[in-house]
Amino acid sequence: MKLDLVAIAPPDFDIDVTLAYATEANLTGQPVYRNAECWLHREAADKLAAAIALARPLGLRLRIFDALRPVEAQWALWNARPDPEFLADPRRGSPHSRGVAVDLTLLDGERELDMGTAFDAFTPLSHHGRTDVSPEAQRNRLLLMGLMTSAGWDFYRNEWWHYQLFDQRRYPLVSDADLPRPMM
């Protein structure tokens, strides 16, 4: 399969890539990715570049927790925690497994802005529009949403960190073997 994937890494992208699933600090308790490769479909990469450009004049940068997630990785997450409120059922396919979704936060220098919960906190407090997180966290979530939606991304209402392309189903699912350099 010929995929139009772009490696998301400095210097091409002024971004901090900290892939949670390449470490033990994720919902499985062990690394899901053997190689911390960060990929997006070219159209998603272009929208990410637009979001980076919008954040720059504010003195902010983006930190990516996850981007393209091979189908095999989606199954690993689903098998560890089959929760359709926070994870796409791999039988339907995740936008991450199509290379058109990104999980991220905002950085001020090296400091992550307070978003009210940690990444992958599978709790209703992670939903957008929560007024029971601090006013600072509410502002930071809305700032991230404003940057990402202005750059052409859609948001997922249950996760403040998740953004995807609007027409994600038109992109094919990607397996680890399809990647230029395998992740798993």
Automatic annotation (TrEMBL):
Presence of the UniProt keyword Protease in the record: yes
Highest taxon of source: Bacteria
CDD domains: D-Ala-D-Ala_dipeptidase_Aad
Catalytic activity: D-alanyl-D-alanine + H2O = 2 D-alanine
EC number: 3.4.13.22
Keywords recorded for this protein, A-Z: Cell wall biogenesis/degradation, Dipeptidase, Hydrolase, Metal-binding, Metalloprotease, Protease, Zinc
One Gene Ontology molecular-function label: metallopeptidase activity
Sites annotated Transition state stabilizer: R69
BP-aspect Gene Ontology terms: cell wall organization; proteolysis
Binding site for Zn(2+): H96, D103, H162
Active site: E159
Enzyme class per UniProt: hydrolase
InterPro entries with a match to the protein in the record: A_A_dipeptidase, Zn_M74/Hedgehog-like
Obligatory cofactor(s): Zn(2+)
SUPFAM superfamilies: Hedgehog/DD-peptidase
Cofactor note: Binds 1 zinc ion per subunit.
Protein family (similarity comment): Belongs to the peptidase M15D family.
NCBIfam families reported in the protein's UniProt record: PRK10178.1
Function text: Catalyzes hydrolysis of the D-alanyl-D-alanine dipeptide.
Protein name: D-alanyl-D-alanine dipeptidase
Organism expressing this protein natively: Reyranella soli
Gene name as annotated: ddpX
